[in-house]
Specification:
Its EC number is 2.5.1.54. By secondary structure, the protein is an alpha/beta fold. The protein has helices at 38-50, 74-87, 99-105, 122-129, 145-157, 185-192, 201-205, 211-220, 247-263; strands spanning 13-16, 19-21, 27-31, 55-57, 91-95, 111-114, 135-138, 163-167, 197-199, 225-229. It has a single domain (13-263), classed as TIM Barrel. It binds phosphoenolpyruvate and manganese (II) ion. Phosphoenolpyruvate binds next to loops.
């Protein structure tokens, strides 16, 4: 069902208020790895509004490698996130980690994110097949392109056709970067599926200085959009600060992404 053989026309998702994801426009989504406070959200949302970025990312349920690391503000944080975003015309993408959260999060998200550690959580995918909200599925940490497509097939065949695929880097033998951003996946996915393909260069390379370069490369590779981490003070971020852009870097990247998209 997610194959181009089944549907030739590219899928374009309409999030409302003129926000679309898919061919015909460049989707930009930015924000902190973790939602930390109302003050932080205010600053980041202002940064997004100033740069005409309509989608904010930010986790309230965080899958952390260490159980002692900050694990997010939970539902209370999500409710604040939602209220503040609505006031500013911003759409929200945030990670859902387990089946029980799908229903409680439903009214407060615009796009459910399935994280790389949950790409093959088939119960979660089944649950998301039953909702009427878009789902962005990240590629598994050691997942193949085919496995990513199979995960999408779970949600699609469950009845939810509002899907976005996200290349966020895979684990390889290389240790010079956090992950290996597999830009090969972009043209391959674009050929194989009618679904929108987004690139996450922040988790893909994991090093702040190189995030803009890889974001631009993602657009040139044919991505429909870029999702990246931005924060008012990356060095103080509760998670993933080392791969997070400050507002100045983010603003410059947004400008360059729009320029490069036009050249494509
Ligand atoms: C994130 O988006 O902050 C995140 C945890 O991503 P991933 O699942 O790709 O590691
Ligand atoms: Mn992160």
């Amino acid at each position: 069902l997610v194959s181009r053989k089944w549907r030739v026309r590219p899928t374009v998702l309409d999030l409302g208020d003129g926000v679309r994801i898919g061919e015909g426009s460049l989707t930009l989504a930015a924000g902190p790895c973790s939602i930390e406070s109302e003050k932080q959200m205010e600053l980041i949302m202002q940064h997004l509004v100033d740069n005409d970025v309509r989608i904010m990312r930010g986790g309230v349920f965080k899958p952390r490698s260490s159980p002692y690391a900050f694990r997010g503000l939970g539902m209370e944080g999500l409710k604040d996130f939602h209220r503040m975003a609505r006031q500013r015309g911003i759409k929200i993408v945030t990670e859902v980690m387990q089946v029980s959260q799908v229903e409680e999060m439903h009214d407060y998200v615009d796009v459910f994110q399935v994280g790389a550690r949950n790409t093959q959580n088939f119960n979660l995918l089944d649950a998301l097949g039953g909702v009427d909200k878009p789902v962005m599925i990240k590629r598994g940490i050691s997942g193949t392109i085919e496995e990513l497509l199979s995960s999408a097939e779970y949600v699609f065949s469950g009845g939810n056709e509002k899907l976005i695929l996200c290349e966020r880097g895979i684990r390889t033998f290389e240790t010079a970067s956090r992950n290996t951003l597999d830009l090969n996946a972009v043209p391959i996915l674009k050929e194989k599926t009618h679904l929108p393909v987004i690139v996450d260069p922040s988790h893909g390379i994991g090093i702040r200085e190189y995030v803009p370069t890889m974001a631009l490369a993602g657009v040139m590779a044919g991505a429909d959009g870029i999702i990246y981490e931005a924060h008012e003070k990356p060095e103080e971020a509760a998670s993933d600060g080392a791969q997070t852009l400050n507002f100045q870097e983010s603003e410059r990247l947004i400008r360059n992404l729009r320029r490069v998209y036009k050249l494509r």
